[in-house]
Amino acid sequence: MEEAPIISFKHVNKIYSNGTVGLKDINFEIPQGQFLVVVGLSGAGKSTLLRTINRMHEITSGEIKIDGEPIQTYKGQALRLLRRKIGMIFQGFNLVNRSSVERNVLSGRVSYYPTWKTLCGLFTQADREMAVRSLQRVNLADKLYTRADELSGGQQQRVAIARTLMQEPKIILADEPVASLDPLTTKAVMDTLQRLNREDNITVIVNLHSVPLARQYADRIIGLQAGQLVYDRPISEVTEADLNDIYVTEAVQA
Ligand SMILES: Nc1ncnc2c1ncn2[C@@H]1O[C@H](COP(=O)(O)OP(=O)(O)OP(=O)(O)O)[C@@H](O)[C@H]1O
Q1: Cα(60)–Cα(204) distance, rounded to whole angstroms?
Q2: Domain segments of the chain: what residues?
């Protein structure tokens, strides 16, 4: 069952310093526990949208609320707490390649520690056990001591997800998480995100280029076109033709 919105956008605009419009008057709400997929062609504003949610990008005007609170004025500790609650998964995994899987996963816990302790690698036994449990959740417990760059792309992305779990996030943002993966590993990564969404009620927002994947995993699909929200439907109402429209119209305009 859907609950109160965990994220809301009201009249959100983002104009980059060079004048490029990233987002244009975006309005929508996301209930806690939803699996939302954002589709749209390259340059439509998907990454921009995701990055405004954890303040990696600042908006130009409008209001974004997380858990009912406007986030734009957050500084210092409040911003750190916001970012702790929001995990982020990137297309390129962003692991430290020469470090072990364990160290990479433990680094997801840094926002719970003073910097000097993390620099010295002073993680507690409880956090080491948590790292093992996180790796179990992504079916990689046997890779604890393996170097990150010895894993396949799909395994590296699952390590990145395990690292995110160390934050105990309420929200996971995934920006093209499977763009560089083959179909089999794509399934493993998407299934993992779906399991965490269903079992832990984590709100998941994923940018995808693939329409079939969007249809397979989403509870709801929103479509962006030139920074505008042009489509917003629950999966039960999404048709192939709608999605083709989002892509074809834009391709013709481009
Ligand atoms: N740092 C930046 N400075 C200026 N313009 C930017 C910047 N980042 C993105 N843009 C522009 O903002 C628009 C939206 O880009 P964004 O990366 O959000 O799109 P996207 O839908 O995620 O595309 P892709 O699928 O290629 O990642 C594009 O026109 C892009 O060129």
Answers
A1: 25
A2: 1-85+170-254, 95-168
CA gap 137, 197 in Å, rounded: 12
Q: Looking at the domain covering 1-85+170-254, what would its CATH class be?
A: alpha beta
ipTM: 0.96
Q: For 23-75, what is each residue's pLDDT tens digit?
A: 999 999 999 999 999 999 889 999 999 999 999 999 999 999 999 999 999 99
Instruction: Tell me which residues have their CB closer than 6 angstroms to ligand 1.
Output: 16, 18, 20, 22, 40, 42-48
Ligand 1 pocket test, candidate residues 18, 47, 52, most atoms within 8 A of CB: 47
Report which residue type is found at 45.
G
End-to-end CA distance of the chain: 40
Q: What is the pTM of this model?
A: 0.92
Q: Which neighbouring-strand residues pair with 220? A: 36, 234
